[in-house]
DNA sequence: GTATAAACGAGACGGTACGTCCAGTCTTGAT
DNA sequence: ATCAAGACTGGACGTACCGTCTCGTTTATAC
């Protein structure tokens, strides 16, 4: 996902006055932060000062764009977000698997870079930032999931009397448990498929 | 849950020399931290310095007991942890509901104090601390859940061919999704029951 | 005293290409600086940035003309310098009084604008600037004083065996002491006359 | 002249609470600043940050004692101030020479360390600081001078009808002119004597 | 009782980062 | 080429905490 200069701020309809902000610098900052994260620098040691040093940029240049570390992290995370999921559309089962699979890969990618995951955690300390992230990343996926389920009900793949919100949480939950509560593993290949099929098969004995 | 002086530290086998540590001071520190959290002070603004001020205690007195803010938080969280769940034992369904219900109440309690939730998040930044918390709080609940499911398989309440780890995640997941991803709500009464019953009833149409 | 554009800089013999520098802008800068000084803004708070803001001018426009704050100050001071002294020429005594009187008025004028006096002090921090100011302001007055004294020796108003440099310092000194060491006062009317007459009368009892 | 910890601040009658301030650190700061000055570091480049680095001290430690660079300079200057003048007491002439001679040596010493002189200038930018310096350094010397002159009038060495304040300025002035207006020189040996004798001999021809 | 010795509150200490401001330079579009 | 505007790197500002280190005082044993 790419974040453009204009994408975040106010659309500058008024004629540009003075030297315009450099997109190159913006990229350098985001990528510098990403690099620190990937190099395994503990989150607590990532200061604005250090980001500036890493990116070869003045501190003021960072503060001119973001009001602090946290806001910057939102954009860093956004830029690391995988592209939109492509749903096969063949069945609810396949769509759900595709959805979970993309979640799984994100979890893995983040884990491979070890800490993005924590940035996530960190962000929750400030509600405003969290809201921004929630709106731009989490909410879209959620509504996509609901849509898939709704179609499943129409198809007869899903019981009609179910609360879709709840079902969505049931589907997404297991992946989250493993990513959040047991960092470091267990997001093996085929997990998405196993979750969905287990759910669809039901938990009770078939008798 | 109460945390005793001896419970955490090194058992001082050698005869005690000099003035012993004051338990009252220990309580003052933990409760002072709790108070800050409950007063809605943003996590980032809770410094050791401020905790000391709030508790009317010297900084060294804190560092004598904990190696830093994070370690202290573990104990604060532990002390806020509800007492052990009591399982009715009447059926797997009832036990699972009891388990989820205790999770739900914890989520709500934390929400009422709004931020404990974030301490949780914060802690993940330091793996050591996280491990400590994981071992003392998360793991026990997890194995309790697995035990309940195992008994369910014996009873015939649960299919015998299921991966219990996965099922446990499926059961716990929805509650976590709501607590973590949608802070501020939707942990209504009866949620535990709805989750368990939805899962047991299965997602497919009954035809 | 007026400072012309050509007076300071390099005479641009080559035909002017592009837009010529605006004299109005130059005046605006100098007068803006003066205004800040007169408004009692502490010298340390007068930044190039602020001068630019006050004068409604870009920073580059200032740097295009002066290499920094200090050089600018020289011109500001020069522009505030009173016009050349007019000596009556009737006697050494009268000429010395005229000289001191002009010094006194300068001191008072500067005091009335409270800070020019300090610019003076500030300038000494950079030898180059000080030299420029010394050459254009202090040295001319000094040689004028020496000339007056020389004529006094010719007239018989002054002992022939005196070191004129020393006498000049003796004449000028008291005024300086009061202006520099006791800012804020004691440059009353008639002071010039009292100094000169006291010196000419001698300090010893007349017996 | 030595500046003690207690000398500047509030007399700490109240029992000392917490770790007391270190006099060694205090000395390190003042001497570090002095060193920078003596090494010819331009005054404008002497930042609190650099002083701290030089003295091997935290910035806060400096700000704990002085409110800023300027206040610190007062103490640095005070500590560089030569010890009190010793007057021979044999005659007004000899006493005045002793007084001027101490002034001259101070001027030279400062020159040798090249910039202390400018610190002086710098200080004038802030009236409060200047007042502090004036009271503790300048005023005492001034009243000492007046006292000497008063005794001179009693002895008959000085005309009884003279304004002593003015005479004092006349005596001190020439030395100041040379130190302030012509930095870099002309404070040769024997200058004090020449000034006093020239003044006492009178400027008019003896006829 | 009276040492002894650790704990205690307070706060100084060397550091590091904060977020802001200014120095000088550079880059726009417009004059 | 100049202008106003304003971005750029760099670095100092004065503040707040970090984790450690004295201080003087308090409080338990152990002698």
UniProtKB/TrEMBL annotation, chains A, B, C, D:
Gene3D superfamilies cross-referenced by the UniProt entry: Homeodomain-like (1.10.10.60), Tetracycline Repressor, domain 2 (1.10.357.10)
Top-level taxon of origin: Bacteria
DNA-binding positions: 47-66
Region listing for Disordered, in residue ranges: 1-23
Keyword annotations from UniProtKB, A to Z: DNA-binding, Transcription, Transcription regulation
Domain (HTH tetR-type): residue spans on this chain: 23-84
Protein name: TetR/AcrR family transcriptional regulator
Source organism per UniProt: Streptomyces vulcanius
């Amino acid at each position: 996902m790419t974040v453009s200069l204009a994408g975040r701020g106010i659309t500058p309809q008024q004629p540009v006055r003075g030297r315009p902000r450099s997109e190159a610098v913006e990229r350098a900052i985001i990528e510098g932060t990403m690099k620190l994260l990937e190099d395994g620098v503990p989150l607590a040691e990532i200061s604005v000062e250090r980001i500036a040093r890493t990116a070869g940029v003045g501190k003021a240049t960072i503060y001119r764009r973001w009001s602090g570390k946290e806001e910057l992290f939102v954009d860093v995370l956004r830029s690391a977000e995988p592209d939109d999921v492509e749903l096969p559309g063949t069945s609810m089962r396949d769509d759900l698997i595709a959805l979970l699979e993309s979640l799984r890969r994100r979890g893995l990618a983040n884990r491979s870079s070890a800490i993005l995951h924590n940035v996530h955690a960190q962000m929750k300390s400030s509600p405003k930032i969290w809201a921004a992230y929630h709106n731009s990343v989490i909410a879209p996926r959620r509504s996509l999931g609901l849509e898939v389920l709704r179609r499943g009900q129409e198809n007869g793949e899903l019981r009609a009397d179910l609360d879709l919100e709840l079902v969505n949480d049931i589907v997404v939950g297991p992946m989250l448990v493993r990513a959040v509560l047991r960092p470091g593993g267990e997001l093996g290949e085929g997990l998405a498929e196993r979750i969905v099929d287990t759910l669809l098969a039901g938990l009770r004995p078939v008798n």
